[in-house]
Design a protein that fits this description.
- The chain is of the alpha+beta class.
- It is built from five helices and six strands.
- It has one domain: GIY-YIG endonuclease, CATH 3.40.1440.10.
- Helices cover 36% and strands 20% of the residues.
- Strands 1-2-3 form a three-stranded antiparallel beta sheet, with no helix packed on it. Strands 5-4-6 form a three-stranded antiparallel beta sheet, sandwiched between helices.
- Strand 4 and strand 5 form a beta hairpin.
- Helix 1 packs parallel to helix 2.
Length: 148
């Protein structure tokens, strides 16, 4: 039985126990940090980035670069060079992996870049680092371990 924030349980012996439930607040993805993808509104190719701040702040920086004709990020360069359009935050940016440990941001960013590059979905202005044998090994293992 539930009453307010309290949950009442009756155990096998008939004793009434009270447990306070924690109200879980769902945090929107735009308020989280981690590895993200921004999809070009026109060509649908994806830019991969990482941030230890919230995604909304980082997205606003990319848009500011575009509005100021400043190709500081590969995403801004892509939009400006190709005269493509950027979309609104809800339709454009996706949290690919929530990460709260800063040291893991770069490896996960590289992994997503490699994966999108392999599938020809990465914007051409962004290049993954040199060929990564570890990524290839993980990708092969993942592909062969999937149920058919």
């Amino acid at each position: 039985m539930v009453s307010g924030n309290q949950i009442y349980n009756t155990n096998l012996d008939g004793w009434l126990t009270v447990r306070l439930s924690k109200k879980q607040t769902l945090i929107p993805d735009h308020e989280k940090s981690g590895v993200y993808g921004i999809k070009c509104h026109k060509c649908h190719e994806i830019y991969v980035g990482q941030t230890s701040r919230n995604l909304k702040s980082r997205y606003q920086e990319h848009i500011r670069y575009i509005k100021n004709n400043d190709p500081r990020s590969a995403y801004a360069l892509h939009i400006l060079s190709n005269r493509h359009e950027y979309g609104n935050i809800n339709d454009t940016i996706t949290l690919l992996k929530r990460i709260n440990t800063p040291v893991l941001l770069l490896p996960y960013e590289q992994m997503y870049m490699q994966s999108l590059h392999h599938n020809n979905e990465l914007i051409p202005e962004q290049h993954p680092n040199e060929h990564n044998p570890m990524f290839e090994l993980l990708q092969r293992k993942h592909l062969t371990s999937q149920p058919t």
